[in-house]
Structure formats: C-alpha cells, structure tokens
Design brief:
The chain has about 130 residues and is mainly alpha-helical. It has one domain. About 50% of the residues lie in helices and about 5% in strands. The protein has a two-stranded antiparallel ribbon with strand order 1-2. Strand 1 and strand 2 form a beta hairpin. Helix 2 packs across helix 3. The protein is globular and about 50 Å long.
C-alpha cells in the first residue's frame, strides 16, 4: 500500500493490522490527547491523563471540529461509545505510540458521555449580530 508522505507510518501499520477504526479516527484521538494535555501544569516532565480527561477532550474537540455533524463523523468511524475511544487509546499504547501507567484500564473510558446525544446536546450556533440559536 502506498503511503502518503504526510501520514504517520505507525498509524498506517496499526490500521493495516487492525482495521477496527480508520486512520483519521486515530489521528483525532491523538489530537484529543494533545488537547487534554494542554490543560496540565506547564513543565510537567511526564503527563498522565485519565480516561475521563481524554474522553471529555474528544467530546470538546468533536463539537469544535464537526459541530452538529459530530455524531455522523463518529458513526462513520465506528465510534459508538466512549469505551471505543479507550480501545483506540490502548491500541495506540500496544503499538508504542503512547505509554500507560500501572492501573490504567480500558474500563476507565466507560460511560463518560453518551454518543451520539451528548455530542450535540446544548450545542449553540452563533448567528451574525450576536444572536444565538440552540
């Protein structure tokens, strides 16, 4: 399979060996982890994020990037529960792209929020003139 020069070869290998989720879904999870890490104290040599922090960052990022289409994107990627996000994180750990601490479990991602409902619940659209549509 030809690889695009901007694609991460480790992610390509992961997707080739286990096509449970597409490349773009893994990229999204890595971006969510980066977002969650941005909330950590500056100067922390090694940052540890909980499953809850990562899942909530994914929700925030999905709403920001995809808006009301977030449930559609998640469905297209096969992400139906927050546990799916955890399964993806643990696949990234297994292939060496992330690390874990003792006690980290995929179950830490269970039932953090409801997909698709909480991806759009309370979503607000700002209209010209400062009007809000909910």
């Amino acid at each position: 399979m030809a690889t695009h020069p901007d694609r991460n070869t480790d992610l390509d290998s992961l997707c080739d060996s286990d096509p449970s989720w597409p490349y773009e879904a893994y990229e999204f999870v890595l971006e969510a982890i980066e977002l969650a890490g941005d909330s950590q104290e500056p100067g922390d040599a090694e940052i540890h994020l909980s499953g809850r922090q990562i899942a909530l960052a994914a929700k925030e990022l999905a709403r920001e990037w995809f808006g009301l289409m977030a449930p559609t994107v998640f469905s297209f990627w096969g992400i139906t529960t927050t546990r799916n996000l955890g399964e993806m994180v643990f696949k990234l750990i297994d292939c060496g792209m992330l690390t874990r601490q003792e006690g980290d479990r995929v179950e830490d991602f269970d039932n953090i929020f409801m997909i698709p409902d909480d991806l759009v619940s309370g979503y607000r659209i700002l209209l010209p003139g400062g009007n809000v549509r909910e």
